[in-house]
Design goal:
Distance between the termini: 68 Å
Largest sheet: 6 strands, mixed
Shape: elongated
Strand order of the largest sheet: 3-4-10-9-6-7
Order of helices and strands: EEHEEEEEEEEEEEHEEEE
Number of strands: 17
Structural class: mainly beta
Length: 202
């Protein structure tokens, strides 16, 4: 997922944040991002200035002091199916400009949707059918539980069409996560009613 390009002694690399912290995944060599701001890691050891652009148009883009990391807002306009390109230029003390250096990233702020349906039951478990949709990065994972509270701590698993889960009062819950890290709203399935016994005081 790292793109590194070189020109003489100049090297520039732009990568995004850690997967575990910002819920990103690498698909087809490109990063997926769920928020507008991305952190760039740069390596250009013999320059003093840098600047960035989303459109490759450098008019009006100011030069700033070089540093190895930089936070930059990617463009959020247009189709989410198209990658966003961040370009960088560097300038040394003699005024020589190096670049353009560019890297692509996909912006996907849209959560997936999904359903869970009970299709079979046993003594202590039920078999559920799972369906999920995501038009951008695609659905990658699911988690299951017998109640909404348990869903928050249930482990993420690869998405499969059917699974076995232990219900609570006949109910099961499912949640889905796309490859960018967006979470669906919880889906549930059950008997369609709950029985409440009357309170008897003696």
């Amino acid at each position: 997922c790292k793109t590194m390009v070189s020109s003489a002694t100049l090297f520039a690399a732009m990568v995004d944040e850690d997967i575990s912290e910002y819920r990103q995944q690498c698909v087809g060599g490109l990063w997926l991002l769920t928020r507008q701001w991305c952190d760039l890691t740069l390596w250009a050891p013999e320059v003093g200035w840098m600047r960035f652009s989303n459109a490759g148009d450098w008019s009006g883009e100011p030069w700033e002091r070089y540093r190895p990391t930089h936070t930059w807002p990617i463009s959020t306009s247009g189709s989410y199916r198209e990658p966003r390109t961040v370009s960088a230029q560097f300038r040394d003390a003699a005024g020589v400009v190096y670049g353009d250096y560019a890297d692509d990233i996909f912006y996907d702020p849209v959560p997936p949707t999904g359903t869970v349906t009970i299709v079979g039951s046993g003594t202590l478990t039920v078999t559920v059918a799972l369906q999920a949709w995501d038009e951008h990065s695609g659905v990658g994972w699911m988690r299951l539980a017998g109640d909404a509270a348990g869903l928050l701590t249930a482990p993420w698993e690869d998405l499969v069409p059917t699974a076995v889960v232990a219900p609570v009062d006949g109910w099961v819950y499912a949640q889905f996560r796309d490859r960018a890290g967006n979470l669906s709203a919880p889906a549930s399935a059950g008997p369609g009613y709950r029985i409440y016994l009357p309170l008897v005081e003696r």
